[in-house]
Amino acid sequence: MASHWRSLLRFRPTTRPLIIFTFCLTVIHSLGDDVDSCDKLRLGQYVCKEPKIDDATQEPENCKDRLAWVECLPAPNISCRLSNGTQFKFSGEEVGFNKSIQCRNVSGYSYKVAVALSLFLGWIGADRFYLGYPALGLLKFCTVGFCGIGSLVDFMLISMQIVGPSDGSDYIVDYYGARLTRLSITNETYRRTQLSP
């Protein structure tokens, strides 16, 4: 029985260098994996700068396609791998990576103006004219805001940001103000089921 196990452990002379080479590559690869990419750092290992806010749009200045980029500084003595593959140890002053943040597509329609027009002049359709819906504005004007009911409904829809500008853009809302974030359910949304005891 012992001779059977010895014969299984014997390798051909050409196979031994291949096994040693594979073992060495595995060891070298495992030693190099202790440093992750800089963009995979955990929260607390880096600090991101605040974005520069445009006064006219109240959105980050570099907002394109609903994304903006902010510079992030890894904490002192953090080592990580840069995007070009080099390992770098940070002192806390260098920019390590850029992080994307969400921003909104705005085109000049103010939320405050839309709500004020809806509240005070909604009965003549001024809110709908302002938002780019001239047909509905004219209809509200001719019917005195659908006898007041349409004005009330429009005020609620505009104040909850359900009705927005006709071009599909978002309202200009103060960057640190009260913004509405819509939640949506898509195929990527996971449903958490409660486990019964």
Roughly how many Å is the radius of gyration?
30 Å
Structural class: alpha+beta
Number of helices: 7
The profile of the biggest β sheet is:
3 strands, antiparallel
N-to-C span:
52 Å
Strand order of the largest sheet: 1-2-5
Shape: elongated
Helicity, as a percent range: 25-40%
Name the helix and strand elements from N-terminus to C-terminus, one letter apiece: HHEEEEEEHHHHHE
Mean pLDDT reading: 82
Which residue ranges are poorly predicted, with pLDDT under 50 across at least 5 consecutive positions? Answer: 29-33
Number of strands: 7
| Strand percent estimate | 15-25%
SSE map:
Layout: H1 2-9, H2 15-32, E1 46-48, E2 67-74, E3 79-81, E4 87-89, E5 97-102, E6 106-110, H3 111-121, H4 126-131, H5 134-142, H6 144-147, H7 149-159, E7 170-172
Parallel strand pairs: 6-7
Antiparallel strand pairs: 1-2, 2-5, 3-4
What does this structure look like?
- By secondary structure, the protein is α+β, with helices and mostly antiparallel strands.
- It contains 7 helices and 7 strands.
- A 3-stranded antiparallel sheet has the order 1-2-5, with no helix packed on it. A two-stranded antiparallel ribbon has the order 3-4.
- β3 (79-81) and β4 form a beta hairpin.
Please give a handful of descriptors for the protein shown:
single chain; 197 residues; alpha+beta; 3-stranded antiparallel β-sheet; two-stranded antiparallel ribbon; 7 helices; 34% helix; elongated
